[in-house]
Design a protein that fits this description.
This protein is an alpha+beta fold. The chain has three helices and five strands; from the N terminus they run βααββββα. A five-stranded antiparallel β-sheet has the order 1-3-4-5-2.
């Protein structure tokens, strides 16, 4: 497994339901942000991958466990680490915590596609090398 990337997220009012609890689908947005920032931290911008290498990443599968609720205005920590690297997919293990309290866990498989044909495409060598050393 790769090193753990951490990304802070504040819960905004728009993230919550009528009860002030984070709406279940919004946890996926928090996970997406952490994965995007992890790539950015490694020097890879997704818009550049599209324009320069015709690569896009799409969610292939998600397994989420909702353990405890997050609420409006709380500061959360979202983690991302790679657990599996294949030729055209990546699997991330992710968590959301509030201080030391584990709120949510996810295993998310991301597919690499050609941006034109939307067919599976090999992960670019430079990216694969960079994530292999994380």
């Amino acid at each position: 497994m790769s090193k753990v990337f951490n990304w802070p997220v504040r819960v905004y009012y728009e993230d919550t339901d009528a009860g002030g609890v984070v709406f279940y689908a919004n946890y996926l947005k928090f996970y997406e942000r952490a994965r995007t920032e992890m790539l950015r931290d490694m020097g890879f911008e997704q818009d550049e991958l599209i324009t320069q290498q015709a690569v896009i990443f799409v969610v292939r599968s998600v397994q989420v466990d909702y353990l405890k609720p997050a609420r409006f205005n709380e500061m959360l920590n979202v983690t991302a680490s790679l657990s599996k690297i294949k030729s055209a997919s990546l699997t991330f293990e992710q968590t959301i915590t509030r201080n030391d309290d584990l709120l949510n866990t996810a295993s998310i498989r991301i597919g690499c596609l050609d941006s034109e044909s939307l067919r599976p495409k090999l992960i670019p060598d430079a990216l694969k090398q960079a994530i292999s050393y994380e």
